[in-house]
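Help needed: design a sequence for this.
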């Protein structure tokens, strides 16, 4: 919130603090799984992949501002982290008292790994669909409003500056 105040703060401070917060979350989860069954340990280690990956991407955004690829990847990892928390809840605490998972079965561990890959694929699909829809929406909106192309906009700005310097009122 301080980055949006009138204080003069460094440009990447918001991303730096967010990166440290996400790293701290991962650090807490890393030590959360001590002496747990193999399935529980594996589920949480997959979560750590999303958390630490997000922390690294956010740290990169400190130095590479306004990079759409990093922003989309950060958002997809945040979606992955959120959906994976739900998956962890359903595996470790089955709803309505369903049967518990065998936490030592290697087949269950491999199935959970496959589920993680599906969660990531769905997160990337959500991001691709959202990006495509917003791209089309902005494209259609800009056609309707008759917005000028960027090159035309720059040349009209240049002409208005020249006219202003010459003392002319013409645009």
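Sure. Designed sequence:
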């Amino acid at each position: 919130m301080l980055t949006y105040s009138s204080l003069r703060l460094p440009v990447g401070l918001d991303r730096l603090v967010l990166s440290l917060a996400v790293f701290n979350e991962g650090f807490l989860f890393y030590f959360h799984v001590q002496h747990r069954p193999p399935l529980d340990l594996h589920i949480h280690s997959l979560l750590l992949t999303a958390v630490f990956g997000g922390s690294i991407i956010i740290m990169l955004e400190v130095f590479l501002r306004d990079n759409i690829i990093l922003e989309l990847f950060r958002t997809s990892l945040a979606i992955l982290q959120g959906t994976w928390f739900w998956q962890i809840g359903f595996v470790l605490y089955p709803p309505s008292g369903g049967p518990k998972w065998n936490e030592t079965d290697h087949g269950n561990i491999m199935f959970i790994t496959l589920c993680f890959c599906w969660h990531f694929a769905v997160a990337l699909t959500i991001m691709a669909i959202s990006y495509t829809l917003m791209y089309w929406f902005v494209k259609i909106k800009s056609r309707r409003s008759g917005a000028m192309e960027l090159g035309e906009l720059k040349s009209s700005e240049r002409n208005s500056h020249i006219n202003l310097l010459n003392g002319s009122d013409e645009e």
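The chain has a mean pLDDT of 85.
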